[in-house]
């Protein structure tokens, strides 16, 4: 049976880009869903899957949320009359209460806000944000041990 839209990692997957490093580096406390204000060439590039979220973070300034450090590679066939900046600051569309909550939590020591993934929701592009706290070195080792153990369990189950 073929993959349906929004399921799995097939050609019709709804996930555009993920920040896998964030799940390893941080404890995720709370997640939010935000819209993105994008230019036309950026949407075309995202349809082609040309996005990267590593080393990306969220900045709250003047009551608005901004996505900094994301990289959307412009397509060669995109608009020729517009100069495309792949690392420009993009505005996140959130409710005022959500922005206030993120701002107050990021003022606490050790807390920050990072994007986890970009994905399609019907015809809109959404960004999943998370309020996070940094992991210590021993927490990272425990995460790695758990991942290795899950791999071994899966291998044992396949063999039997």
Automatic annotation (TrEMBL):
Family: Belongs to the SmpB family.
Protein's UniProt name: SsrA-binding protein
Gene Ontology molecular function terms on file: RNA binding
Listed GO biological process terms: trans-translation; trans-translation-dependent protein tagging
Keyword RNA-binding set for record: yes
Biased composition (Basic and acidic residues): 140-160
Described purpose of this protein according to its UniProt entry: Required for rescue of stalled ribosomes mediated by trans-translation. Binds to transfer-messenger RNA (tmRNA), required for stable association of tmRNA with ribosomes. tmRNA and SmpB together mimic tRNA shape, replacing the anticodon stem-loop with SmpB. tmRNA is encoded by the ssrA gene; the 2 termini fold to resemble tRNA(Ala) and it encodes a 'tag peptide', a short internal open reading frame. During trans-translation Ala-aminoacylated tmRNA acts like a tRNA, entering the A-site of stalled ribosomes, displacing the stalled mRNA.
Location in or out of the cell: Cytoplasm
Main subcellular location: cytoplasm
GO cellular component: cytosol
Region (Disordered): 136-160
InterPro entries named among the record's database cross-references: SmpB, SsrA-bd_prot, SsrA-bd_prot_CS
UniProt xrefs under Gene3D superfamilies: 2.40.280.10
This protein's UniProt keywords: Cytoplasm, RNA-binding
């Amino acid at each position: 049976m073929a993959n349906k839209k929004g399921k799995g990692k097939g050609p019709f997957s709804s996930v555009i880009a993920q920040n896998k490093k964030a799940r390893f580096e941080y404890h995720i406390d709370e997640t939010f869903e935000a819209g993105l204000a994008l230019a036309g060439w950026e949407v075309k590039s995202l349809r082609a899957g040309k996005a990267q979220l590593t080393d990306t973070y969220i900045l709250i300034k003047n009551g608005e949320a901004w996505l900094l450090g994301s990289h959307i590679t412009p397509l060669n066939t995109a608009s020729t009359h517009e100069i495309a900046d792949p690392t420009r600051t993009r505005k996140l569309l959130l409710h005022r209460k959500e922005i206030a909550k993120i701002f107050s939590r990021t003022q606490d020591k050790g807390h920050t806000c990072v994007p986890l993934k970009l994905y399609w929701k019907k015809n809109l592009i959404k960004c999943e944000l998370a309020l996070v706290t940094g992991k210590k070195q021993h927490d990272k080792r425990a995460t790695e041990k758990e991942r290795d153990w899950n791999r071994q369990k899966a291998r044992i189950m396949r063999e039997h």
